[in-house]
Amino acid sequence: MSEQLLDGEQSGVEQLLDGEQSGGEQLATGEQSGSKWPKRLFWLVAVGLLVGWGLTWGLDSPLRPVLAQREGIRNAVAHVSGTACGTFIEGTGFMVEPGLVITNAHVVAGIDRIEVGAPGRGPVIATLAGFDPGRDIAALSVPDLGASPVALSSKGAVATEIGDVATVDSDGKLVFVPFEVTARRLDVGRDFYGQQTQGRDVLEISSTLAAGDSGAALVNISGEVVGMAFGIHRGRQNPGYALDGGEIADFLAETDRTPIPTPPCRTL
Fold first, then answer.
1. Is the pLDDT confidence value at 216 over 90?
2. Cα 143 from chain centroid?
3. Which one of 59, 124, 168, 174 is most buried, by most CB atoms within 10 A?
């Protein structure tokens, strides 16, 4: 499998934010010009809100893990960043138990000072408490983050399963990106240090992943995590690749949560 990791390119995040800001400016301009007819504007806004509400509940809610559950997901997602061998790296993570956030191992490899922040909360310094380059997963101890855990699914993801990739940008804004599982496979190859791995279960997904999404949770329509994003097909955004939820559960069962030294920067 030829995949490209998703950590750290600030330009990808900036393009997303610029696009959102541009849309907001256009909306503000439209509202301003319509202020000449306040009564007409009032009824247009009221009708628009009713139509939008109906479409949201009628079309979105059966297919995506949110509305009622997004607030719980928001409280679990975290932004992970630091400098490794002179290069600024950033990615995403999520809390799986009180005080413990997981992310991709390649995001934190070589970082002496790992900062973890959550939407609406400033960054805190994390302690590395687990690291598996073969699976590409790491555990971070952050007792002072103030986030809440999200549930892991007890069932493995299946082809055609849908949901959202929950990621947070460097400004602390939570972003949901739809995904669909297109295949499951056993991935055998080399880790980011060039060492042969014993294999891991991965999900191939149809989604639009970008730099900074490494470590993001794949959340199903029940609001449970079924995987963790780690890469895209080299040269393309789609398909994306995620570590299967079963691998996450096995890693957590094998990790004793004690502090460990900073591993070296990745070589691949």
1. yes
2. 20
3. 168
Q: Distance from first CA to last CA of the chain, Å, rounded?
A: 14
Please give the radius of gyration of the chain, using alpha carbons only, rounded to the nearest integer. Answer: 20
Angle at Cα 96 formed by Cα 234 and Cα 86, nearest 5°?
A: 50
- Residue 219 CB-density burial (10 A; 0-12 exposed, 13-18 middle, 19+ buried): buried
The first and second tokens of residue 132, run together, are 């598996």
Is the pTM higher than 0.85? no
Q: What is the pLDDT of residues 159-205, one digit of tens each?
A: 999 999 998 876 778 889 999 999 999 999 999 999 999 899 999 99
Tokens of 96: 């799986």
pLDDT tens for 242-265 read 999 999 999 999 999 999 999 999
Q: Which amino acid is at 100?
A: L
How many residues belong to the chain? Answer: 268
Q: DSSP string of the chain? A: --EEE----HHHHHHHHHHHHHHHHHHHHHHHHGGGSHHHHHHHHHHHHHHHHHHIIIIITTTSS-TTSHHHHHTTEEEEEEEETTEEEEEEEEEEETTEEEE-HHHHTTBSSEEEEETTEEEEEEEEEEEETTTTEEEEE-TTS-----PBPSS---TT-EEEEEEE-TTS-EEEEEEEEEEEEEE-SB-TTSPBP--EEEEEEES---TT-TT-EEEETTS-EEEEEEEEETT-SSSEEEEEHHHHHHHHHH------PPPPPP--
pLDDT value for 87: 96
